[in-house]
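Milestone M4 deliverable, item 7.
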Amino acid sequence: SVTRNTTTTTPTEDRVPPRMTIQQPIGNFILTSAPRLTFRGAATDNVGVTKVTWTNTAGNQSGAASATTVNGVVNWSFDVSLAVGFNTIQVRAWDPSGNSTLYSTTVRRY
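Output delivered:
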């Protein structure tokens, strides 16, 4: 008789959130007279980035950023309309496990 030892491996749960860099505009507080602003950046993850989303609390705006992937780096961008006054812009990069990284900035349009 032959005895075989088998080992069952369970994939480990991914708990590593994506990394994100903001390339434009830079700063935690932005002052502008422009009615629109373009945000650009890049995101990476140990498993992969599935999407990049954004919100603007002024006017309840939200959406998915346009994105292209080159060598595992997701380059993303979006244009956002700015209300006069304070706009809180949040950008979030997501991976397949639901981990996310958040970037937030305040834009004041005068």
